[in-house]
Amino acid sequence: MLMYLRAVRGALRTQFLISKHPFDGMGVLLMGPLYAVVLFAILKNTGRIDLAGFALVAPFLISVLMQGIFQAGELFARDRDGQTLELAVATPAPYFIILAARVTVVMAISIPSLAVSWLIGWLFFGIDIALHHPVALVATLLATLFAASGTAVAATATFCYGRSSRTFQSTVAYWPMMLLAGVIVPVTLLPEWIQPLSRAVFLYWSADLLRDAVAAEPISNVLPRLGALTGLGIIGALLGAWLVNRMLDHHEREGTLGLS
């Protein structure tokens, strides 16, 4: 156990130092607020201030998914390009644990974008979104980070079956997933036949809970909804662990583990 904790601590420290570069990870803190400016401007000019929760939550979840698809997917590729993958795989700790720890750091960088979006709405558009349920908000943020990290690990392993993960990343369209999860518009506006699929996406539960956390009305069924969000995170983590092991076996069998 101590060996695993040391490996996780080293992975966390390494990824944090890498992500401090302004063009490597921190860029999401700029992308999220840009979306917030657009959404708040639309609501302000259409007089739909009652939908301010969408303008606050959507940029944050877009940042989370962008981190998962584009930043977390780079981790394996960088290890392989830097000729450090063999060393990481050879450590006593499973590579999945090291990868999951690094992915968690990458995903956590997107959390401040929620506060930045709130400041944009308040300072530039005069929209003051009150925080009525802080405990539910913090619990949802932690559950979202967990679910997003598990999903990102699974995506990372899938991307890296090829010689270059960037080929797969360039073909991924995350906007359909945002629409399916009700991040941009309410799920009720989607066709009825597709609405049940929304509940299989962790973003659906996260967006719903985050919007309720800033609403004045009491939140109903908090624990079951948090359970659904966490459960999807566990499924993503288990799928990620299986895919990482399959991916490593594939590259070792093909002799391409260290080839970039």
Work out the helicity level: over 70%
Radius of gyration: 19 Å
Number of strands: 0
What class do helices, strands and sheet pairing give? mainly alpha
Largest sheet properties: none
Please give the domain count: 1
Based on CA inertia axes, which overall geometry fits? elongated
User: What fraction of residues sit in β-strands?
Assistant: under 5%
How do the SSEs run, as a string of H and E? HHHHHHHHHHHHH
Could you list the spans in which at least 5 consecutive residues all have pLDDT below 50?
A: none
Count of DSSP-assigned helices: 13
How far apart the termini lie comes to 33 Å
Give the mean pLDDT: 79
Describe this structure in words.
With 260 residues, this protein is mainly alpha-helical. The protein has one domain. The two termini are 33 Å apart. The model has no long low-confidence stretch (mean pLDDT 79).
What are its keywords?
13 helices; single chain; 260 residues; elongated; mainly alpha
Secondary structure layout:
Elements: H1 2-19, H2 28-46, H3 52-71, H4 74-81, H5 85-90, H6 95-108, H7 112-125, H8 134-159, H9 165-171, H10 175-181, H11 195-198, H12 202-213, H13 222-254
How would you briefly describe this protein structure?
By secondary structure, this protein is an all-alpha fold.
